[in-house]
Design a protein that fits this description.
- The complex is a heterodimer.
- Chain A is mainly alpha-helical.
- Chain A has a domain of 43 residues: Glu-tRNAGln amidotransferase C subunit, N-terminal domain (Histone, subunit A, Orthogonal Bundle), CATH 1.10.20.
- Chain A contains four helices and two strands; from the N terminus they run H-H-H-H-E-E.
- Chain A has a two-stranded antiparallel ribbon.
- By secondary structure, chain B is an alpha/beta fold.
- Chain B has a domain of 283 residues: Amidase signature (AS) enzymes, CATH 3.90.1300.10.
- In chain B, 36% of the residues lie in helices and 12% in strands.
- In chain B, 64% of the residues are buried.
- Classes of the chains: A mainly alpha, B alpha/beta.
- Chains A and B meet through helix 1, helix 2, helix 3 and helix 4 of A and helix 9, helix 10, helix 11, helix 12 and helix 13 of B.
Chain lengths: 99, 496
Amino acid sequence: MALQPEDIRRIAHLARLELKEAEGSRMLAQINSFFEIVEQISAVDTKDIVPLAHPAELLREVQLRLREDKVSEFDERAAHQQSAPAVENGLFLVPRVVE
Amino acid sequence: MSEIHHLSVAELSLALRNKELGAVEVATHFLKRVESDKLGSFLSHDPEITLKQAKASQERINQNQSGTLEGVPIAHKDVFVTKDFPSTAGSKMLEGYRSSFDATVVNKFALAGCVSLGKLNCDEFAMGSSNENSAYGPALNPWDSQKVPGGSSGGSAAAVSARLTPAATGTDTGGSIRQPASFCGITGIKPTYGRASRYGMIAYASSLDQAGPMAKDAMDCALLLGAMCGPDLDRDSTSLDIPAEDFTKNLGQSIKGLKIGLPKEFFGEGLDPQVKNALEGAKSVLTGLGAEFVSISLPKTELSIPVYYIIAPAEASSNLSRFDGVRYGHRAKEYSDLMEMYKKSRAEGFGAEVKKRIMTGAYVLSHGYYDAYYLQAQKIRRMIAEDFKIAFSQCDLIMGPVAPSTAWGLGEKTADPLSSYLADIFTLPASLAGLPAMSVPCGMSATPKPLPIGMQLIGNYVQESKLLNVAHQYQLQTDWHKMNPGESAGLTGGSK
């Protein structure tokens, strides 16, 4: 089942990407040709197979690791914001979202 | 002593320790080569910073406070964030980006005494197999500048091969250390997933991304791996709680009686006869050392392509959602509201392949497709890992090609990206299973220009030292790892 141009528009919105017309059609062709090789996975019998999210769990039991609740990082706001596109008084600037 | 740039990490380290060479002298020598780089392998360097580090390193040598790799120059793939150099991940999105901290791996090399030469070119966000997806232009293969160096750690492989640096870091998500190492005739290892910290590695696909060293030979890789591995439990939630080890300690062992598995799926149609011949040659050498070969099967090898190209983009679409033009990275000049700012900033900042993978990932994770694609791929991922488990009950390690061919021509696969996905077939299975795997030079193609060929060794979990020993024993018998593209390759003016 091939993707249609409207699928590309919908996914581009989900992915927050503005796509030009030509870019969208090139992508449609490339993604559809990729999905031709993807279709073979649906033929694989995976009944009772537990999905493997992470290779680490093959080695040992994985548990969510929490670090000790202590102050380990200090205020480096200026360093963190040195590459921000727009900053004012230590705050990140974005377009107005609430009227 | 040979010329400084032909010395291995082990030799440099010893010469520095014995004060036959000075850290500043070594750094200056390599900087001169970096500055005449015409391969595009470096994205940034800064002599002032490098020389400052070299002077500090020499101080430590003088005071007998040397680290394990004191004074040895290294360069980092540009997906590792660094305070001293810009960190771009090969993307326009992060042009000029300065990190406020160093990646754990970068930090560990600094603590070992390494001197940083700068940052290396790579495919954008490590997505690619040719380095042609870099926003800053491709790195070139030093053996033939019309060929790709491989990717995504193409700059790392090209720089080590052209002797611009004795050592480099790389990252491997689906083969990004092994394949460029193979294309450029150097040695590289991707350790077991979780061995090296991912903290400060700009994320592509988190359940697959793994850092590793790239250098001239297995001995150097062992030394470098020892410096970069180890638990980082407070900063990387998937870091293995296994202490770093001295990976050189087993390098003298005999491999007599070692069982090496040859997966029949790795030697089928589509394998370049020259690659096949080179592997036959390697097999004879290893047989001569007492290794035994057994035929094994990894039946899901072909499925690893769709499985990888579903899982990796899915994780990428999530990881790259952080680039929103707010906290860092590119922001579009004109927009009417927040949504448009996101969409335009991301459209302008990301390259075509990255956008395609984000789109593919968003699609396979979206409502109605998640089970059929993403979950199904994760189930087959487990089956692939299980196949390896069965294989390792029949052999100690696995040998095969790294890639079906030698380096391809620049632009050859850009019109049809799917063809480069298919070329990842032999590196993807070990990545999906999280196993350690390496590339070892084992031959040269004859026509038209000689190009390096790599053999892949895949080991069981945390068996890096076994892999490295087999590679080392092989390299004691062979000279492929000593071949280099020539004194002037990759340098302007052809001078040393």
